[in-house]
Q: What sequence folds into this?
């Protein structure tokens, strides 16, 4: 599995690498790729060699030693399940094949691997094609999200209004949500024309493994919706995870500002940020110096 | 964020037997313009897609990448953006390691 099959040229392996990475970026299963960027003094490591690791198990390629391949496969699977995602990191290979990720624990002579995760961009699922939905689609697509818009009013869910969306669906919200795939890279937002529709949408979204479920509205009104659904017997922990009130506190007023606050919250969760001003997180540069 | 179209270009270049060099930010310390994982794909004519930092250090990487285009040898370029460069307004800081490999030939 970790060695090229007999008769298979390295060109074939390389082509399969590229195909699998491309498929992952296009929405297929995520993959991790370890590349030897510096063999150091570790025997067997080949500069530029690659090992592709699938979440389901299975690898493609080889780094140079079966023990290191095994350790790198494990590191790759860990990277594929880590949240927030680390897109690329350096892993140090010690004598004996042990892998360490902290630079402070690396020693002279260690080999270096670059460990990358390839997966499709986040999917922004917008329920409601109104002002906020439009701003979310616009800013969200700029940020690299694949955008899906659902609204039960055709005048708010059409291609002319949402040219930046990869999917625009006009139809009954509950029915359409049932057909849409929701998974760990789905960021769902309820910004429909009213709370009844938001409640309906929420009912068909929670508990399906989305990375983010948020609902717009005042604390009082969204609290009522959540309580309704808890009373109905929907899982409390799923409902308590719903982001409402939605977004980061930036004092947003206009639809565009509200969309920005919501997307900022999503990026914060994706990247593992704190949501605090940088100046408070990092401290200020002393006066007279460049930041 | 890695780019599906960039990998589509690599696949097509491999199919046609054309060269492409991929530069990836492998590691970054301090405040660098791009984070690890950022990629740039270089073509034999010197044009490229993607960015690993805009004006900040890209010229240096481009030059090394053209070397890899010619000799096929993978290499790491450490770009130090903390140095005071004449004519540079020092908006870039930090140090990044960029791994360069000929991904299609």
A:
């Amino acid at each position: 599995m970790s060695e090229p099959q007999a008769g298979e040229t390295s060109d074939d392996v390389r082509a399969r690498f590229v195909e699998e990475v491309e498929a992952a970026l296009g929405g297929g299963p995520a993959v991790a790729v370890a590349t030897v960027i510096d063999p150091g003094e570790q025997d067997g490591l080949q500069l530029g060699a690659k090992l592709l690791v699938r979440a389901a198990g299975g690898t493609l390629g080889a780094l140079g030693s079966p023990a290191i391949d095994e350790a790198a496969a494990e590191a790759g699977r860990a990277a594929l399940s880590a949240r927030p995602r680390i897109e690329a990191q350096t892993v140090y290979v010690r004598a004996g094949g042990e892998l360490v990720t902290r630079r402070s624990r690396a020693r002279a002579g260690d080999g270096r691997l670059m460990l990358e995760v390839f997966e499709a961009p986040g999917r922004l699922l917008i329920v409601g094609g109104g002002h906020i939905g439009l701003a979310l689609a616009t800013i969200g697509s700029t940020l690299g999200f694949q955008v899906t818009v659902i609204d039960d009013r055709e005048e708010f869910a059409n291609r002319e209004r949402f040219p930046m969306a990869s999917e625009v669906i006009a139809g009954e919200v509950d029915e359409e949500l049932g057909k849409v795939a929701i998974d760990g890279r789905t960021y769902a937002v309820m910004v429909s024309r009213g709370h009844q529709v938001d409640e309906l949408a929420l009912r068909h979204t929670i508990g399906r493994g989305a990375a983010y479920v948020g609902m717009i509205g005042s604390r009082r009104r969204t609290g009522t919706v959540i309580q309704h659904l808890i009373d109905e017997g929907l899982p409390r922990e799923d409902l308590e995870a719903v982001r409402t009130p939605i977004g980061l506190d930036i004092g947003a007023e206009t639809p565009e500002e509200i969309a920005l606050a919501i997307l900022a919250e999503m990026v914060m969760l994706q990247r593992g940020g704190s949501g605090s001003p940088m100046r408070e997180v990092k401290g200020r540069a002393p006066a007279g110096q460049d930041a | 964020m890695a780019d599906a179209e960039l990998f589509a270009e690599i696949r097509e270049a491999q199919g046609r037997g054309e060269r492409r060099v991929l530069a990836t930010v492998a590691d970054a310390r301090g405040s660098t313009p791009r984070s690890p994982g950022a990629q740039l794909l270089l073509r034999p004519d010197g044009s490229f897609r993607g960015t690993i930092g805009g004006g900040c250090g890209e010229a240096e990487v481009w030059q090394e990448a053209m070397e890899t285009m010619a000799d096929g040898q993978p290499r790491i370029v450490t770009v130090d953006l903390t140095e005071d460069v004449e004519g540079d307004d020092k908006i870039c800081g930090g140090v990044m390691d960029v791994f360069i490999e000929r991904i299609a030939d």
About this structure: DSSP finds nine helices and eleven strands in chain A.
